[in-house]
């Protein structure tokens, strides 16, 4: 048989046959006087075996090891590992489908927030907080989504519980909206603007003790890489408000 004939018989392509020769998976047959390879039934048997192993998901390097082991021990080991790998993939797919189901439920319950996908708890909180046209408020919602993606379930629950007053207390929500509007007005201000210090103090006063306890007494915002990145997300005068706010929150948390 010629290469096209044996490839068709084994269910592969002539290009695959040549590739298997190149990798040493399939010995090259002798050539006829006319220069064409002459394939026999044994070549077809080996090609069919290679095709079955690739369909199982084995890499060609693994197949080469399997074919080199006449007693089948290598094949057994490879198949066991392949089964374990498929089990891991199956578990990951199941986990991803569970997360997807949660997101679809958020869609049914009122739609994904612009910051989505986020955890169901944060999605519920963001829907409860009245949407705002404030650029800095939108930034903070993005910061919440970032924290939501970085913490474990227990930390997330505590974090969301601490933020719940923003959704449950209309007066606090209205006051927070006013503070964000004032922060927006500092977008083009200088870092020595007289509005900075009182605005930082007002922001600090609006943060409930429950959130302070969750924050702990860590370093000020500008003393940590994340804090530095956070400050860099704001205009200079706004960043100065946030820096003073974080420093005051650290002071308050140490006094609790």
UniProtKB/TrEMBL annotation:
CDD domains: HTH_MerR-like. Residues 72-106 form a coiled coil. One of its GO terms (molecular function) is DNA binding. The keyword Ribonucleoprotein does not apply. InterPro entries: DNA-bd_dom_put_sf, MerR-type_HTH_dom, MerR_fam. It holds the Pfam family MerR_1. Gene3D superfamilies: 1.10.1660.10. The keyword DNA-binding applies. Keywords: Coiled coil, DNA-binding. Residues 1-69 form the HTH merR-type domain. This is MerR family transcriptional regulator. It comes from Streptomyces triticagri. The lineage of its organism: Bacteria, Bacillati, Actinomycetota, Actinomycetes, Kitasatosporales.
